[in-house]
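We emphasize that the prediction below concerns an isolated chain of 153 residues; any contacts that depend on oligomerization or on bound cofactors are therefore not represented. The input was used exactly as deposited, without trimming of termini.
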Amino acid sequence: MTPLERYVEPAKARDGFWRVIVGAMLIALIWVVGTIVVLLCAAILSVAANPGRSIVSALDAFVLSDTPLTVMILLASICTIWIGLWIVGRYQHRQPFGTFFSPDRRFHSIPFLKGLVFGAVFYTVLTVLEFGLAQDLQDGLKFGQWAPFLSRW
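Result of the prediction step, given as a token string:
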């Protein structure tokens, strides 16, 4: 049995296209709700730290992402997608969370390190290309300035 077949084998008992669609929708729903909860909790903590601030202005800070802390909290809310993946895998597909990463549910350091090196090299090459090819990098362009470029794709 090939490694791919060993990886896919646990999921064959409960396969079906409808499960993929329902699972993806549930993961997206849990991700959105989780993000809202994270942002509301962070806004409440922000209001508690600054009593003169309103929750609306605290939430606006996340929309604007004008400080490194707000960007970090917004990016941390992406972790809620893992909660959705765990819930859908556990209750809809009846699969332990570890089977998403390896068929024997163990952490394998060599494939992980290979993927980490590949991702780091890929990201580094793209970053170097971006800065090498970019002429004028401008921050905070208005919608009317960057939207016409979408039609070229």
